[in-house]
Write a structure and sequence with these properties.
Number of helices: 9
Membrane topology: Multi-pass membrane protein
Protein name: Aquaporin Z
Structural class: mainly alpha
Number of domains: 1
Order of helices and strands: HHHHHHHHH
Organism: Flavobacterium sediminis
Subcellular location: Cell membrane
InterPro entries: Aquaporin-like (IPR023271), Aquaporin_transptr (IPR034294), MIP (IPR000425), MIP_CS (IPR022357)
CATH architecture: Up-down Bundle
Radius of gyration: 17 Å
Length: 233
């Protein structure tokens, strides 16, 4: 149960910190943090929780990471479903708190017809800059693939694992710097689901892509690292 609570709190912090920065701080005229600030916020959530609870659960905070580590031979398959459930509950709980805070404003309303509503992910008309489904799929696949390579490599028994959290956090920052304009950046099915649940409409109907592309990318990365890159000597 300690591992599951660690995954719950880690994923909660990722969504609350990352999506919260997008909702509260990104768009303030002249003073807002913009895309770069949101990218850094997502990276910092993972970096901080990697050191806070990573030693308890492994610090996945992402169903794609859990499945990628399994594909790389680094995770017990019997723990996959409990981990993913804990991650999704943590993400949805964080989205619920964000909704509660935002609903305190008199003019608050989620416009499900707008791209990026409530920090949701999307493609086509719901991409921040109008990227179509294929572009979104390729971006999410490639970025999750390399995210898993960084995670698996940085936590390899031959690596200097003391700095793994920094490498992983910076990798997630870079991923967001690249892809916020494309999909609002997912690479994390739990993060996508949590926001879409509160938006509903088309963003919720598009959430399938933000499960399939990251999971597929993560699985391929795990297989590639295990068979082509891992040093077994």
């Amino acid at each position: 149960m300690k591992k599951l609570f660690a995954e719950f709190f880690g994923t909660f912090w990722l969504v609350f910190g990352g999506c919260g920065s997008a909702l509260f701080a990104a768009g303030i005229p002249d003073l807002g943090i913009g895309y770069a600030g949101v990218a850094l916020a997502f990276g910092l959530t993972v970096l901080t929780m990697a050191y806070a609870v990573g030693h308890i659960s492994g610090g996945h905070f992402n169903p794609a990471v859990t499945l990628g580590l399994w594909a790389g031979g680094r995770f017990d398959p019997k723990k996959i479903i409990p981990y993913i459930i804990a991650q999704c509950i943590g993400a949805i709980a964080a989205a619920g708190i964000l909704y509660l805070i935002l609903s305190g404003k008199d003019d608050f309303a989620i416009d499900a017809t707008q791209a990026g509503a409530f920090a949701s992910n999307g493609y086509g008309d719901f991409s921040p800059h109008g990227y179509p489904l294929m572009s979104a799929f390729v971006a999410e696949f490639i970025l999750t693939f390399f995210f898993l390579l960084v995670i698996i490599g940085a936590t390899d028994k031959l690596a200097n694992t003391k700095f793994a959290g920094i490498a992983i956090g910076l990798a997630l920052t870079l991923i967001h710097l690249i892809s916020i304009p494309i999909t609002n950046t997912s690479v994390n099915p739990a993060r996508s689901l949590s926001q879409a649940v509160f938006v509903g409409g088309e963003p919720l109907s598009q959430v399938w892509l933000f499960w399939i592309a990251p999971v597929f990318g993560a699985l391929i990365a795990g297989i590639v690292y295990k068979n082509l890159l891992q040093n077994n000597t």
